[in-house]
Amino acid sequence: MNIRIMQMSDFQSAYALWQKTGISLVMLEKEKIELETILTHNPSSCFVAVENKQVIGTILGTFNGRRAWIYHVAVHPKCQNRGYGSALLQHTETMLQVKNATKILLAVGISNLKTVPFYEKNGYHVINDAVLMAKDI
After folding, report:
1. pLDDT by residue (tens digit) across 1-26?
2. Model's pTM, two decimal places?
3. For the chain, which domains are there?
4. The dihedral of CA 96, 121, 81, 24: what is its sign?
């Protein structure tokens, strides 16, 4: 397994992986536009894991100058429990620290709570004093 910087050319493979892993997605074209924006603003903290020329993992690390966020952590179901997800997190965390991020946030969908132990194993904790809110625009 090799981890490298994500490129827009990885989009189709990444999107298929996200679908396979059950990540909550918007329409394909909107995901593509959002990924392009993320990669433009955060070119050094978004990665793919590749094995046999196939994208088997993704992570999107973003930093807005105050807080860092992680999105779309995914590892192909056949490749899980091999440390690939932890390796992707470590790569992104390192690059976010280089950007002077001091806190990383991520959200786990209610339908994906089985991943909470993975994040806890990697040093993340549930925030008990916040409610995640959203507004579509």
Report:
1. 999 999 999 999 999 999 999 888 88
2. 0.93
3. 2-121 (3.40.630.30)
4. negative
